[in-house]
Amino acid sequence: MATSSNTNRTSGARRASTTRGGASTRRRTTSTPRKRRTSATTRRRNVSSTQPKTPVEQAQVFAERAVLVPVGASLLARENLVSSVKGLATRYRTRAGVERELKRYERRGATARNRFERQVRRTRTRFERELRVRRNRVERSVKQNRRRFEREVRSVRRDLERQSKRFASVA
């Protein structure tokens, strides 16, 4: 048996191996199969093969869809309604069930109220703290400015008194 020319190839190389009808075909030596390229016309043909070909068939498809869509939607709505009613019926079937649900709602309301009150307290505390800090800064600043002003006034008064004594002694 003759050996093929594949033994001397590297993994990524391609070579012409056989000829059919005068055209050479190429084989890949990698293990992944090569994807067949399809032309746009082939793709269009594949898509259109599922579509009805005659106007009568197209009209039939449209008529079926026009009937099936509302039927499917109404069945879905019915299932949702039935499941909701069943859920409510199991919850509120007995007086104990109703009381249990009321307690649940009450607990949830109390939790929401407590959370809101805590948030209000935190906000109020934060606001009061910021107000205190700002007030203290303003008071400190006013005290410093007053001291600085009084020091400057004393200094100016002393200078005026010295100058007036000098002026009185010269005159």
What can you tell me about this protein's structure?
This protein is mainly alpha-helical and 171 residues long. Helices cover 73% and strands 8% of the residues. It has helices spanning 40-50, 55-91, 95-170, and strands spanning 14-20, 23-28. It has a two-stranded antiparallel ribbon. The radius of gyration is 48 Å and the shape is elongated. The model is unreliable at 11-18 (pLDDT under 50).
Task: Provide a concise account of the structure shown.
With 171 residues, the chain is mostly helical.
What does the radius of gyration come to?
Answer: 48 Å
Q: Which sequence of SSEs, written as H and E, runs from N to C?
A: EEHHH
What structural category arises from helix and sheet content? mainly alpha
Q: Care to count the β-strands?
A: 2
What assembly state would you assign to the polypeptide chains in this entry?
Answer: single chain
The CA-CA distance between the termini, in Å, is 143 Å
Beta-strand residue percentage: 5-15%
The number of helical elements comes to: 3
**Strand arrangement across the biggest beta sheet:** 1-2
- Approximate helicity band: over 70%
So what's the overall shape?
elongated
Q: Averaged pLDDT, please?
A: 81
Spans where pLDDT lies below 50 across 5 or more residues: 11-18
Q: How is the biggest beta sheet arranged?
A: 2 strands, antiparallel
